[in-house]
């Protein structure tokens, strides 16, 4: 029997959060953590968590499993469990709405700040804006982000300044549009990033790289943004 | 865009660059001093080393680098931990008091250092 400890908090009835223990029969299989949560849901229907696609595409079930952020649906027990124990907590640093469900407003507000859409002031062509295969390649490792918030909520700089530091996820997206050959707002985008908080709260500790379930590298993208700022301002 | 009036250069990029360059200068200075110490110096040799203008200028450069480096670092620490988000309104008072205290201490060290070098 797997020992699972789950963070419980219902702000309407509880004065403070607590941990609830469950025993789960995994049948000796290497289940995903999400499967374990579903089994727990059959024991106690009040456990709250987000999930949708159950295959690492939607980014709904970002959780903290035995201290490490990740997507419950694609994290096998063999990777997460230590000494037959599994502690599941909500993503750190964001306000808890209930149990494992966090309020992502601050995360989305930072995403919104980087204007994550193509901006082009030249007349639109008849069919579509073309891009060479080489230019398209520059977006690899950037466009795959699913906004699960595992990276930003693993970042101490984001914990202390979620209202001012854009965070690894938002900055990866910022670079995705800075690197896009079809975007013409590069200067305006960069001008908004040259303050002491938005980009430069990144101290390069790479927690984001360590936890990204899609294997992306926000620290490298932040380095590219810094270089773009540097080459324009010196 | 987040405005700040107490950061070293008022710009994240400038602070970042100053932090990196001053770090390299400090590394070079302490390697130089470390090599001299490992090589073994007595009072006279040490005195003679600091009597040369080149060494005094290098030391002043390191001292100013240390001042800038320390200010940028302490400013980042204060704006991480001493904030209204984490401590309520008293965080703002504490942060400003801490920043003033840091700048005074750094100022004293710079003046004191200059006095030692050319006194």
From TrEMBL, chain A:
<dbReference type="GO" id="GO:0046872">
    <property type="term" value="F:metal ion binding"/>
</dbReference>
<feature type="domain" description="4Fe-4S ferredoxin-type">
    <location>
        <begin position="135"/>
        <end position="165"/>
    </location>
</feature>
<dbReference type="GO" id="GO:0006099">
    <property type="term" value="P:tricarboxylic acid cycle"/>
</dbReference>
<keyword id="KW-0003">3Fe-4S</keyword>
<comment type="similarity">
    <text>Belongs to the succinate dehydrogenase/fumarate reductase iron-sulfur protein family.</text>
</comment>
<dbReference type="InterPro" id="IPR017900">
    <property type="entry name" value="4Fe4S_Fe_S_CS"/>
</dbReference>
<dbReference type="Pfam" id="PF13534">
    <property type="entry name" value="Fer4_17"/>
</dbReference>
<dbReference type="GO" id="GO:0051538">
    <property type="term" value="F:3 iron, 4 sulfur cluster binding"/>
</dbReference>
<keyword id="KW-0411">Iron-sulfur</keyword>
<dbReference type="Pfam" id="PF13085">
    <property type="entry name" value="Fer2_3"/>
</dbReference>
<dbReference type="GO" id="GO:0022904">
    <property type="term" value="P:respiratory electron transport chain"/>
</dbReference>
<keyword id="KW-0479">Metal-binding</keyword>
<keyword id="KW-0813">Transport</keyword>
<keyword id="KW-0408">Iron</keyword>
<dbReference type="InterPro" id="IPR050573">
    <property type="entry name" value="SDH/FRD_Iron-Sulfur"/>
</dbReference>
<dbReference type="InterPro" id="IPR009051">
    <property type="entry name" value="Helical_ferredxn"/>
</dbReference>
<keyword id="KW-0004">4Fe-4S</keyword>
<dbReference type="InterPro" id="IPR012675">
    <property type="entry name" value="Beta-grasp_dom_sf"/>
</dbReference>
<dbReference type="InterPro" id="IPR025192">
    <property type="entry name" value="Succ_DH/fum_Rdtase_N"/>
</dbReference>
<comment type="function">
    <text>Two distinct, membrane-bound, FAD-containing enzymes are responsible for the catalysis of fumarate and succinate interconversion; the fumarate reductase is used in anaerobic growth, and the succinate dehydrogenase is used in aerobic growth.</text>
</comment>
<dbReference type="GO" id="GO:0009055">
    <property type="term" value="F:electron transfer activity"/>
</dbReference>
<keyword id="KW-0560">Oxidoreductase</keyword>
TrEMBL record, chain B:
<dbReference type="GO" id="GO:0017004">
    <property type="term" value="P:cytochrome complex assembly"/>
</dbReference>
<comment type="pathway">
    <text>Carbohydrate metabolism; tricarboxylic acid cycle.</text>
</comment>
<keyword id="KW-0472">Membrane</keyword>
<dbReference type="GO" id="GO:0046872">
    <property type="term" value="F:metal ion binding"/>
</dbReference>
<keyword id="KW-1133">Transmembrane helix</keyword>
<dbReference type="GO" id="GO:0020037">
    <property type="term" value="F:heme binding"/>
</dbReference>
<dbReference type="GO" id="GO:0005886">
    <property type="term" value="C:plasma membrane"/>
</dbReference>
<keyword id="KW-0349">Heme</keyword>
<keyword id="KW-1003">Cell membrane</keyword>
<keyword id="KW-0997">Cell inner membrane</keyword>
<dbReference type="GO" id="GO:0009055">
    <property type="term" value="F:electron transfer activity"/>
</dbReference>
<feature type="transmembrane region" description="Helical">
    <location>
        <begin position="96"/>
        <end position="118"/>
    </location>
</feature>
<keyword id="KW-0813">Transport</keyword>
<feature type="transmembrane region" description="Helical">
    <location>
        <begin position="57"/>
        <end position="76"/>
    </location>
</feature>
<dbReference type="InterPro" id="IPR034804">
    <property type="entry name" value="SQR/QFR_C/D"/>
</dbReference>
<keyword id="KW-0408">Iron</keyword>
<keyword id="KW-0249">Electron transport</keyword>
<feature type="binding site">
    <location>
        <position position="81"/>
    </location>
    <ligand>
        <name>a ubiquinone</name>
    </ligand>
</feature>
<dbReference type="GO" id="GO:0006099">
    <property type="term" value="P:tricarboxylic acid cycle"/>
</dbReference>
<protein>
    <recommendedName>
        <fullName>Succinate dehydrogenase hydrophobic membrane anchor subunit</fullName>
    </recommendedName>
</protein>
<feature type="transmembrane region" description="Helical">
    <location>
        <begin position="20"/>
        <end position="45"/>
    </location>
</feature>
<comment type="function">
    <text>Membrane-anchoring subunit of succinate dehydrogenase (SDH).</text>
</comment>
